[in-house]
Amino acid sequence: MTLAIETRDLLYRAGKSFELREVSLHVPGGAIYGFLGPNGSGKTTTIRLLMGLLKPDAGSITVLGHPIPAEVPRALLRTGYVPERPQLYTSLTVEESIRYHAAFYPHWDRRWADELLARFGLDEARHLSRLSKGEMGKLMILLALAQTPDLLLLDEPTDGLDPVVRREVLTALLDYVSQRQATVFISSHLVHELERICDWVGVLDRGRQVAELPMQSFKNGIKRLRVQGAPAQLGDTPFVVLAREYSTGAGETWIVRGWQTPMDQYFGGVGASLREVIDLDLEEGFVELLRTARAPRQEA
Description:
The protein is 33% helix and 30% strand. It is an alpha/beta fold.
């Protein structure tokens, strides 16, 4: 499997209060990779490291086959970027902004830019200072896609947009990916939004990588189990036990990852009985991952 992005044991300290540590990402080429995490978890910092805007304290970064920061210009030539906050010259009109950005990219697709201009209903004569938040969000996506990049780095691209604008932006993004087989790395704290579009998911919390797995495994493999009569020491389990909560009597509630139906045979082998398997939606699974990841730290 060819990787569009790979980081190994990434470490970055931002002052005394925050650090990214041991972040190892594997983003397959041609995939839409959802980078999930609460606000302040380090998603934007990670993207800045991928773009060479920050230098890691330890570890390695490779983007589109180029080591970062050594070959940043070559990687960025093939990368489209939408930052969390717009960074455009607001004194320019929409048309002037398009022409300004086109000058920096040899593979700029003006025809595609005009198509998106019409699809998004943007007035090319309007100054950026007079655009609404939704219009500015659509312009940012337009500028990134018209570069015809092999990789899109999107930092909370739909945060604060109304549902109609959000759908327009995501539809344009999916159209581009299907036509160009591009890779998308999209950070968000809006779990339900990524559920419909992503192939892979990485989860970050408080600067620490919590999980990385295919979306299908994320959606189907995290379960809540009702168990009775389980021994105190479990030994090797065919799934990952994220949390084990005791209740009154002999019953317990387990949160597990990597669940598959044949694994219910495990319980008979340890003298326990599985009473119920409860499906979790994506947001519940995300919350459970964060909760169980934080539990050891709280106990310590």
